[in-house]
Amino acid sequence: QRQFHLAFHELKNELRLTIDYYGELFLSLYETSGLVVQSEGDEPALRIKDSKHRPFFVHGNSNTIVRERDMALFNSPLPKNKRRTTERVTGLTFDDMCCTGKVAGPWCSSMMTEEHSAAYYSEGEGESGEESGAVQSDVDYSEVAPEDVVVRLVTAASNISPMYCETFLSILHFYERMPDVLGWGDEMLRRDHSRKLFHLERLLQEIPEHEVVVFMDAKDVNMNAWDHEHFVDVFRSFRADIVFSGERNCYPKDPAYCKPEVRAGPPGAIQWFLNSGLFAGRAGALRKFVAVAREQDAGERNSDQRQFHLAFQELKKEMRLALDYYGALFVSLYQNGKNVVWTEGNEPALRIKDSKQRPFFVHGNTNTISRERGMALFNSPLPEGFKAQRLTSSRMSCA
User: Fold this and answer.
1) Which 3 state secondary structure label does DSSP give 155?
2) Is residue 330 helix, strand or coil?
3) pTM (2 d.p.)
4) Can you list the positions of beta strands (E) in 43-194?
5) At what angle do helices 304-315 and 195-204 cross, to 10 degrees?
6) How many helices (H) and strands (E) does the chain have?
């Protein structure tokens, strides 16, 4: 807006520029609520009070509309009935995203049970029956019982594809509700992955600092297990405020963080470089980390992972940060096929070969999973059985 202000003044004598002073096309609600009315009738609408104009677009700027959460966050009151019916971040259901147009597939109504059709919501009641934001910022996180810790699952996607749908199916099977989807409709996100941090920062400003936020890439991550209390216990075992997935490859290459001494990690490690496609942390700590990460140079590839690498180096002595070297929470499959196995039984799953641990999330980074379409596009071999069958045990099979 500052750039537009300055350009307007530079060009106003050269171009035919004007401002809509009377709300004929556009109306901004900030500090103008006394000038607008909600008209009733066959088609209720917002109109200019004196002129009775009905503007084509209404801007709820300064969050007049977008943060309407039954809380006093408005800079001006909204006219009667002027409400949003969906949340900015959490209003998309699985059906909205995966059962329309080109992406509609076998995962839709014919494959769904009534039990799971009822679970298509992004932010509903947790096991305790309370809102997912129930833990307030003044709660001492260390004293909260695992079952009472709020865990918020978050991803980022600008549009939909069958690969996203498979990811969401694995989430619905284990987590039984949709994650918060950030960046929906942001076309820039498709080519600029650093935009993920912009959207994540906005979310972190709105939620209690003691919530545990789990972020996962949307296109090539699958959920592999879920038990709320066990996840919280494993997360706490790191004694860190943020835990990042590891991976065996340092990407993008930069001597500032691709240090030779890091390669191989501690004894028994299976992954040792930071991977920004999977991480979990307290919202308050992530708020600080993401703010610093956004200040870092994303490089020619607009890489959020480069920004995370640089922020990790800057903050590792100041914050409690950790990498998941052993796949306790997260495992990355790139060059890691020999360290994971597919186990059969009542509920088939991917496990770490030596420890038999079952990580909660599996990242098929560099397309190990996401482009598995009967083509040899893998950078590392997949464990036997870990292909299309990875969801066949689900009550909502993609098979």
Assistant:
1) strand
2) strand
3) 0.66
4) 45-48, 57-59, 151-156, 180-182
5) 60
6) 8, 15
The more confidently predicted of residues 14 and 219 is: 14
Give φ, ψ of 172 to 5 degrees.
Answer: -60, -35
Q: Do 212 and 281 contact (CB within 8 A), yes or no? A: yes
What amino acid is encoded at 74 in this protein? F
The pLDDT of residue 343 is: 77
Which residue would you say has higher pLDDT here, 73 or 116? 116
**What is the rounded distance in angstroms from the CA atom of residue 359 to the CA atom of residue 225?**
7
Distances (CA, A) of 1 to 59, 64, 266: 14, 18, 49
Ordered strands of the 361-363 beta sheet = 221-223, 361-363, 330-332
DSSP state of 382: P
For strands 212-217 and 57-59, give the pairing.
unpaired
Q: Are 97 and 164 in contact (CB under 8 A)?
A: yes
Confidence label for 43 from pLDDT (cuts 50, 70 and 90): low
Residue 109 has pLDDT above 80, yes or no: no
Q: What local confidence, expressed as pLDDT, does residue 350 receive?
A: 86
For the chain, the C-alpha Rg in angstroms (whole number) is 24
Which token pair is 141? Answer: 């996180």
Helix, coil or strand: residue 276: strand
Cis ω on the peptide bond leading into residue 106 (within 30° of 0)? no
What DSSP string runs through 283-305? HHHHHHHHHHHHTS--TTTT-HH
> Which residue type does 206 have?
E
**Paired tokens of 289:** 């980390």
